[in-house]
Every structure is written in structure tokens, then in C-alpha cells.
Amino acid sequence: MATPIKDVILKENAPVTILFDKHIEFLRDYGKDDNNFEFGMTDYLRVSGMYWGLTALELLDQTHSSPQEEIVTYIKNCQDPETGGISACLGHDPHLLHTLSGVQILAMYDRLDAIDVEAVVKYVKSLQQPDGSFTGDKWGEVDTRFSFCAVATLSLLKRLDAVDVDNAVKFVESCMNFDGGFGSRPLSESHAGLIYCCLGFLSITHRLDLVKRDVLAWWLCERQLPSGGLNGRPEKLPDVCYSWWVLSSLTILGRLHWISGEKLKKFILACQDTETGGFADRPGDVPDPYHTVFGLAALSLLGQAEIKNVNPTYCMPQHVIDSMQLSPQILRD
Ligand code: GRG
Fold it and tell me: Using CA atoms, how far apart are residues 320 and 277, in angstroms rounded to an integer?
């Protein structure tokens, strides 16, 4: 007997339109109460969390409603004077992921002048290994996520020249699998999140010539389940965040039209919380800013009118990427 497909069933009364005002309220209020238990337990991801929330607000055309000066000062204070890297919150060690998130926020605000840019460049450079890979911080974990974070940060600072790009490309290429996908390290399982990181990396470095374009696009299409939602690898449940990791990858490959956008949209909209606003991983679950930004960004790639255009490589508003005169590579037919 064939194994049943793991999936969810959408309810008849699931929302079918964007709950625009509810999402704005959800994002504005999130984290306002710093005595809240959830807030206290998430300090290890604070700067990235700020990037998710602010990008979501920006896609809803609501940036003006964020406390810009307070956020700029917070990021400035998270820059470690010794290494130049940015930490998740005050008093924590710096990390490449939060360095990227901090730089993304400042780029959105056009306030990169607030930090010591050359110190950030020095930090990113210090994390490159002899095989071209990057560690996330001084503790040495290597992952293709950090290759993406490194080149995305440096390109936003216009300092991609600071690292050995050819060697970095060789490492990412060595993480490509027979199915066209990419894992976290050589011989690791293909995963949609890491595929986004590697395609984003190759888009920024203009080396998409290395990918098995249609083999990979087909693997990504196979992530769509009968509910319309996408999973990150075979035999897994759908999750709104993969709407972004898969769709941005298909967009970079010029193959967005290979999946059913209509069915995916229905799934994403069904993940909205009708009471509080925000998106959850799956219908009926608790919403959070992470799933909210990736739900909105995926809807933007699907051409949803009320949402601003998002750039598939940087997951930042397209107008910011345009005004910075960045031109990541995108394959088109
Ligand atoms: C600027 C948008 C942006 C991103 C920064 C950190 C990063 C770069 C991207 C993260 C990509 C990602 C989601 C990687 C997934 C890593 C992974 C192996 C997750 C597996 O988690 P499970 O097993 O999930 O909980 P599944 O869905 O596979 O069960």
C-alpha cells in the first residue's frame, strides 16, 4: 500500500482575502511589551526578528509607523567594538545572521552611516575559511546559510571585493546534489531553505550558470502538496515559510509559473489568524512575525496587488534594491 501524503486539509471557512489591517496591528503591537514571557525568551533572535517585522510592515507600505531612531540606535549598540559583527541583542556575541539582518534594516532606512561599515567588512572577511566556506561566528559552525549571509551583507555594503568570491563559489558548488538541490554542507540533504541560500548566493555573485536549472526547478515544484502548500523536503508537512524559500528560488530560476500560484495563494491566505492578524506555519496554529513576513513576501511574488514588490534574492523591498543600484542575477527565458 502506498504511504499517504503528509498534508493538511483547508477548512471551508478559511480566510480567502488578505486581512490587511489586522496584520498591521499584529506587527505594530508585537514586542511592545518587553515584560512579556515570549519577548524575554526570544532575545537570541531579536535583530533578525526586527528585520522580519520591519520588512513585513514595509511590504504593507507601513514603514513610517516603526520607531526608526530607536531601532537604528539599538542596532548601532549591537555592533561589537572588538570584531565589528552585530549581535542578536545587547550583550550577546556577534553572529553573521544578525549582522546581515542589521545591515538589511539599516539599508531599508537608508541609515548605513549609523554603523562602522569597515568593521563589519572586517568581521565578515574574518569568518571565511580556506575552502571558501563561512562560519556563522567565532565558534566555527559551517553552513551554506552563512555563505549567503556573507555575500548578501557585503553586497549591500558594496564591498563584495573584500572576500575570495571564487573560492566561496567553489564551496557552494560542492554542496550541490544529484537532484539539483543544495544542502548545508557537501553531501548534506537538499532542503528548500538551503536551496534559497545557495541560489541567493549564486544570484549575488552572478554564477547561476552553475545550476542544474530544470532539474532543480522540478524538485522545487514537487514541494507542492494537494492542499496547495509547500514543504521544504520530501515527506514533510507544508509550512508558510516554504512559500518563500521555494517561490523565491523558482523566481530566481525563472520558473515561477511551474507551480500552481492559485492553489498556493489559497493555502497562504488560510494560514492567517482571523482574530489577532499575522500568519502561522499552518492553518489554525499561532501566528508570528517570521511566518508573517514570508507569507506576505510569497504573496508579493505571486503578484498580490496590495503588497509592494519584494526582491527574490534579498527578501527586501524591490525599491530599496533599485535605489541601491544592486542587480542580483535572475534567469529569464
Ligand atoms: C535574508 C531571507 C533571509 C534569510 C537569511 C538564515 C537564512 C538566510 C536562511 C534560512 C534558510 C532556512 C529556512 C534553512 C532551513 C534549515 C533547515 C535544515 C531546517 C530544517 O528544519 P526542520 O527539520 O524543517 O524543522 P522541516 O520543514 O524540513 O521539517
Answer: 26
Distance CA 34, CA 40 (A): 7
pLDDT at 292 over 90: yes
Q: Please tell me the distance from the alpha carbon of residue 283 to that of residue 18, in angstroms, as a whole number.
A: 14
How many C-beta atoms surround the C-beta of residue 91 within 10 A?
A: 9
Cell of 289: 512575525
pLDDT above 80 (res 1): no
Residue 139, class by beta-carbon neighbours within 10 Å (0-12 exposed, 13-18 middle, 19+ buried)?
Answer: exposed
CATH architecture of 20-324: Alpha/alpha barrel (1.50)
pLDDT tens digit string along 193-233?
999 999 999 999 999 999 999 999 999 999 999 999 999 99
Nearest CA to ligand 1 atom 28: 232
CA separation, residue 80 to residues 17, 92, 123, 135 (Å): 44, 9, 10, 17
Query: What is the predicted pLDDT for the residue at 216?
Result: 98
223 neighbors 212 (Cβ within 8 angstroms):
no
Cell numbers placing 194: 538551503
Contacts with 124 (C-beta within 8 Å, 6 or more apart), sequence order? 96, 99, 134, 150, 153, 154, 162, 163
Q: Which of 23-32, 82-91, 169-178 has the lowest mean pLDDT?
A: 23-32
Centre of ligand 1 to C-alpha 13, Å, is 30
C-alpha of residue 223 to centroid of ligand 1, in Å: 15
Q: Cell numbers for 21, please give them.
A: 489591517
- Is any ligand 1 atom within 6 A of the Cβ of residue 315? yes
- What spacing in Å lies between the alpha carbon of 1 and ligand 1's midpoint? 32
Q: Quick count: other Cβ atoms within 10 Å of Cβ 255?
A: 19
**3-state SS class at 310:** strand
All cell numbers assigned to 104: 538589511
First-to-last CA distance in the chain?
41
pTM: 0.97
Query: What cell was used for 283?
Result: 492553518
Instruction: Show me where the domains of the chain are located.
Output: 20-324
